[in-house]
TrEMBL record:
Gene Ontology terms describing biological process: isoprenoid biosynthetic process
Organism from which the protein derives: Symplocastrum torsivum CPER-KK1
Highest rank taxon of the organism: Bacteria
Protein encoded by which gene: sds
Full protein name: Solanesyl diphosphate synthase
One example GO MF annotation: metal ion binding
Keywords carried by this UniProt record: Magnesium, Metal-binding, Transferase
Pfam families: polyprenyl_synt
Essential cofactor(s): Mg(2+)
Regions that span the bilayer: none
Gene3D superfamilies: Farnesyl Diphosphate Synthase (1.10.600.10)
Sequence similarity: Belongs to the FPP/GGPP synthase family.
Amino acid sequence: MTSVTSLFAPVETDLCILTENLKNLVGARHPILYAAAEHLFGAGGKRVRPAIVLLISRATMLGQEITPRHRRLAEITEMIHTASLVHDDVVDESEVRRNVPTVNSLFNNRVAVLAGDFLFGQSAWYLANLDNLEVVKLLSEVIKDMAEGEIQQGLNRFDTTTTIDAYLEKTYNKTASLIANSAKGAGLLSGVSAEIATDLYYYGRFIGLAFQIVDDILDFTASTEALGKPAGSDLISGNLTAPVLYALEEKPYLEVLIEREFAQPEDIEQAIALVMESRGIERSRALAAQYAETAVQRITQLKPSESSKALVDLADYVLSRLY
């Protein structure tokens, strides 16, 4: 299995610069916010989103150095992602993420909400300073999509009538929109054609969907230690993901357990067992594979390079996390 470190080798130096810049962008004027940022940006995330922005930047600027605006877009992308995680953890009352305490558990909910707001505000300010209206529009839409996705998830908790289409729309809003629009934004900063910009958008969209579906499978199949959060936590909180929605088609009793919100002592163990016995995991895996394959088809126009190869390999990496 390819490690994420070797996968991102073409932009390894860029990612090191990014991590330092992120801490500086938040600034040391606010000790608690700086502590929160240092905690977040040092929490050992995979940096998948900024890595995609940097790989696309390099793949579309062959023979030239990427610009400070490309780097700034990668930083903005990680800031928006991190701000959304901070808010998610407050909404979900999470105590750990990536095996480290969340901002809300280290400080409190009030500080966590304000830290998330501050990061969104900072990202908007730096976005405006890119002086590229089309990229500003793309990333502004992402922030709207993320909020909409969180609302959709909140309204559909424990709702067994949720469809796969509704799940995919929510997943696009919460996860794939940022990857899709920042991928397109990187291409626009490189001056690619409208056609290639659209292809880059769809590459990000499909990679983002595959990535989240795989995460939703791992919520059932990976250990708590590997996940960095309790296994089955999505189901416990009433967030019905692809494996559950597919399992509901086969296991009618699962609907009973979900609709009573796992009120009985053995309910959650029973629900997880029903999902595991069904074809829910298998069908979700096939869906993720289909999206990963479609993503790769969208970047065949890019000239061969280390960076374009890494973008192709990323699709394999996303799926390999299941094995």
